[in-house]
Amino acid sequence: MLSGGREVERIYSTNIAIYPVGGRKPVLPNAYTQRVRTEMRPFLAKTPAEFAPLFPDHETITGLGLGCVMNLPVVFNGDVLGTVNLLDREGAYHEQHVERAMLIAQQIVPVLLSGKA
Predict the structure, then answer these.
(1) Element (H, E) at 116
(2) How do residues 71-103 score in pLDDT, each as one tens digit?
């Protein structure tokens, strides 16, 4: 997170043509930000209808054939260091995936703390 929490920067991407590493975007004050960045809880949207109102780039996401998102806060000492954002076809992720995915996402804490991400 950059600029006092008002902006985020992408440190990894599987589609660098559309979502390049180093790309930045503002943190918007909405229910997604409240849940993931303030409450430090994962966000799961199984359909575009669930994430479209919260994601300004929802048309880009759905244009890539993606319709399900799971965003996982990476937390250390009570601070959100970043998020792991997983996207797939509509309905690919369910509640039972979230807990396991959170365990995996937390494994990147040392990388984020080292600044070598």
Answers:
(1) none
(2) 999 999 999 999 999 999 999 999 999 999 999
For residue 46, give Cα distances in angstroms to 30, 43, 89, 94: 18, 10, 9, 7
Count of Cβ atoms closer than 10 Å to residue 26 Cβ: 10
Q: How far is residue 54's CA from residue 76's CA, in Å, rounded to a whole number?
A: 25
Q: Which residues of 93-108 are buried (b: 16+ CB within 10 A; e: fewer)?
A: beeebbeebbeebeeb
CA distance 45 to 41: 13
Q: What global pTM score does this model have?
A: 0.89
Give the pLDDT confidence score for residue 57 in this predicted structure: 94
CA distance 5 to 27: 7
Q: Residue 102 and residue 27: Cα distance in Å, rounded? A: 21
Amino acid at 36: V
